Amino acid sequence: MKYYWFGFLMSSLLLVSCIKDEPKNSECDILNVWVEGEAYKDCFYQPETDMRKNDLLFSTKEIVFTVKSMISLPKIPLHFTLTPGATIEPANGSEQDFSKGPVTYTVTSEDGAWHRQYKVEFKEAELPTLKYDFENYETLDVNMLIFKYSYYSWFEMDENGNRKNIWATGNQGFGMGNSNLTPDEYPTVPDKNGYEGACVRMETKSAGAMAAALKKYIAAGNLFIGEFDVNNALKSSLESTLMGKNNPFPQEPVKVTGYYKYRPGAEFRNEKNEVVPGVVDEGDIYAVLYRNQDANGNPVVLDGGNVLTSEYIVSKAQVKSLPATDEWKPFEMFFEDVAPLNEQILDKFGYNLALVFSSSKRGAEFCGAIGSTLYIDKVAISLEKE
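RESULT FIELD:
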């Protein structure tokens, strides 16, 4: 019996030693942030969803809450879920005055060696951007564990000179397996030879050795209104494309117009990377207006797997074809009703709009032709009541 207790004691000491010696966490991220309390509900159009920002992306630097009015905005306490052991300043749950502009929060890791800053802002709901010239772009750097690379990203500027980060691409996911490439070698890049000024060029590329090991052989060039969830990229590329996220649309769209050039690649390949004789690759352009909240008040965000089939879609538009051309040609597509549109929900910013461009129509299935290239420029959304 004494040997049993000696063994138990030694095991306990080893366990304590392991716990004691375990390194402190070096992560310093905001995971969730929310406004808590009945007193603040009247500040928001849809309190159930507008008062919370859950599952923030790793790339998040700015957090924006949409409110009815800034004039009557009280001091508001924000609550945060952080990575384990991290701390935040200003303090979690402390009241802050957001009426004078963004408040910067600094998150420090448990080991004290790392910190990240987030700008949190409360803004009145704005009318959406309706014209896109693709003149505003930049390179972003990723430094995440073993992944270090740079890629192109686009943004819009409103009439007051405020930046609107509404665009996303699959570039960030592509870079995880192709960090040796320059940003200009990625699937979606800017091109100075647009219809007017700069445009966006999307090209279907080989996805690289790491993606091929996961049986994902091609990477279509794409650009879409929404966000790309890099944390989910290796697990589910379809679910990593969050279509229309953070783009509430309080007006009924009628059509989308713009200019394009398109040239399909030489050999169409299926999801097994087999050449399919006689099949010619196609580019794709489509838009979807969908309900951003379910019947229980939970947020709804469509992704690459359900963006054209979801039960929450109320209308959608899609080009019927994009004939190959080396000259700029106009395109036009009209929204068709899928379900009744509720004017009260529309007024409360209860619908989101996704707009998607891709160099390979079946790129989400990893089917397409390497070399297929789509250029887009001067895109505009027309409304029923302009």
